[in-house]
């Protein structure tokens, strides 16, 4: 059996007419930037999240960067970010001229460990950026508590967790603002690049909107030296068309995750841990294995696609050499980078495909043992 790491085909088949309809509607109107589709999506996505305001952006990285810029964070400031995340989180911080300060994750959940945040707070700290990685909500209560005590902003990186729930409330609604990505592979994906900022702070949202539109509040009037990062009409139309299906698609991911969690039984494999009180949306199903490279090759040889999230931690990337953080300084992020393996997870995976992945993983090691004995 061949099972890709990810496939959009089942979703595209199901939504074919809906997506073509969205295209036709925008094309017939010949209006591509800053129109009714953008407004409509901002409204429905804010409603979906349970916040008052939303502003569309060009992508998720810009969403995060524009929030930091709008909060006035820049040169000389520090922002606390997890050491285990996609590089965009750190790039948003350095783009505005601030310094990322890395905090190690709880290796069981892969997410930032709240008790380790406090020791990294300095007089220059302005914000904490929790990342709800792989679809798993961060432990927001202690994070919000620390932020309150130290008067810090909380900016949620929600790029991988559309619809995930922490203690009955959707993620993206805890911090001062939250950035989403609609990169095609995300749980809610556009047919290209797209992103959004959500917040209950009206002033912050108008500032983000202006900053993403050349710093302009109305035509040819520029308040700030802004960026060009807007959600275009086509992507907004696609997103509005797909949003009503997000819950259904997340439910499918939860079903796949449940089957993996119940079915995978191999002492060489550590399954993801779900923090009590949270409902993850399984953007990625991340397992850990000491012999990751062998397991990956074994799975690929048996037709099961895999991926690594992420093979080189941010502090060991060439582009962040200037931060002066050495190998060994963030051991948990480093451990995850060499042990994490992501299993196939996408809407439309069939039962027999999920069962095949489980069966193949459960046989891993047995065949290794056999080949040793031969
Ligand atoms: C995808 C992603 C981003 C960036 O989103 P883009 O739309 O690709 O710019 C930011 N943070 C995390 C955790 C992501 O996974």
Task: List descriptors.
15% strand; alpha/beta; globular; three-stranded antiparallel sheet; binds pyridoxal-5'-phosphate; seven-stranded mixed sheet; Aspartate Aminotransferase, domain 2; 15 strands; 374 residues; Aspartate Aminotransferase, domain 1
Oligomer: single chain
Order of helices and strands: HHEHEHEEHEEEEEHEEHHEEEHHEHH
Poorly predicted sequence stretches spanning 5 or more consecutive residues: none
Q: Tell me about the biggest sheet?
A: 7 strands, mixed
CATH superfamily of the largest domain: Type I PLP-dependent aspartate aminotransferase-like (Major domain)
Distance linking N and C termini: 26 Å
Mean pLDDT: 97
Q: Could you tell me the strand content as a percent range?
A: 5-15%
Q: What this model shows, in words?
A:
With 374 residues, this protein is α/β, with parallel strands linked by helices. The chain folds into two domains: 9-244, 3-Layer(aba) Sandwich (Aspartate Aminotransferase, domain 2), CATH 3.40.640; 246-373, Aspartate Aminotransferase, domain 1, CATH 3.90.1150. The chain is 38% helix and 15% strand. The protein is built from twelve helices and 15 strands. The protein has helices spanning 9-29, 36-49, 60-70, 88-95, 140-150, 202-211, 233-242, 246-263, 292-301, 331-339, 351-363, 366-373, and strands at residues 53-57, 78-82, 99-103, 125-128, 153-157, 165-166, 169-170, 177-181, 195-199, 216-218, 221-222, 269-270, 278-279, 285-289, 340-343. α2 packs parallel to α7, α3 runs parallel beside α4 and α3 packs across α6. The radius of gyration is 21 Å and the shape is globular. Pyridoxal-5'-phosphate (PLP) binds at residues 59-61, 85-86, 88-89, 131, 157, 159-160, 181, 183, 193, 195.
């Amino acid at each position: 059996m061949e099972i890709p790491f990810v496939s959009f085909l089942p979703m595209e088949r199901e939504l074919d007419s809906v997506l073509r309809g969205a295209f036709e509607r925008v094309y017939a109107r010949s209006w591509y930037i800053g129109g009714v589709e953008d407004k409509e999506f901002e409204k429905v996505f804010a409603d979906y999240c349970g916040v008052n305001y939303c502003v569309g952006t060009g992508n998720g990285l810009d969403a995060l960067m524009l929030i930091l810029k709008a909060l006035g964070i820049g040169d000389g400031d520090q922002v606390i970010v997890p050491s285990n995340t996609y590089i965009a989180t750190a790039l948003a911080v350095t783009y505005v001229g601030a310094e990322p300060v890395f905090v190690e994750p709880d290796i069981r959940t892969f997410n930032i460990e709240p008790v380790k945040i406090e020791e990294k707070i300095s007089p220059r700290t302005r914000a904490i950026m929790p990342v709800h990685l792989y679809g798993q909500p961060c432990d927001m209560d202690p994070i919000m508590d620390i932020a309150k005590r130290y008067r810090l902003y909380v900016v949620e990186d929600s790029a991988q967790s559309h619809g995930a729930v922490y203690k009955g409330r959707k993620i993206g609604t805890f911090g001062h603002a939250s950035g989403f990505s609609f990169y095609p592979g995300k749980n809610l994906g556009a047919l290209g690049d797209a992103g959004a900022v959500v917040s209950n702070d009206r002033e912050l949202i108008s500032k983000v909107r202006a900053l993403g539109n050349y710093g302009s509040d109305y035509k040819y009037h520029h308040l700030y030296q802004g960026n060009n990062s807007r959600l275009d009409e086509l992507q907004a139309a696609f997103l509005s068309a797909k949003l009503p299906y997000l819950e259904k698609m997340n439910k499918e991911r939860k079903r796949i995750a449940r089957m993996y969690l119940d079915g995978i039984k191999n002492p060489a494999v550590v399954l993801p841990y779900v923090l009590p009180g949270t409902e993850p949306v399984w953007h990625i199903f991340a397992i850990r294995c000491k012999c990751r490279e062998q397991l990956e090759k074994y799975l690929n040889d048996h037709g099961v696609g895999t991926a690594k999230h992420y093979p080189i931690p941010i502090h060991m990337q060439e582009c962040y050499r200037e931060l002066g953080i050495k190998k060994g300084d963030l051991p948990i992020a480093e451990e995850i980078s060499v042990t994490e393996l992501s299993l196939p997870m996408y809407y439309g995976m069939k039962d027999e495909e999920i069962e095949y992945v489980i069966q193949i993983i459960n046989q891993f090691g047995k065949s290794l043992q056999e080949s040793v004995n031969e």
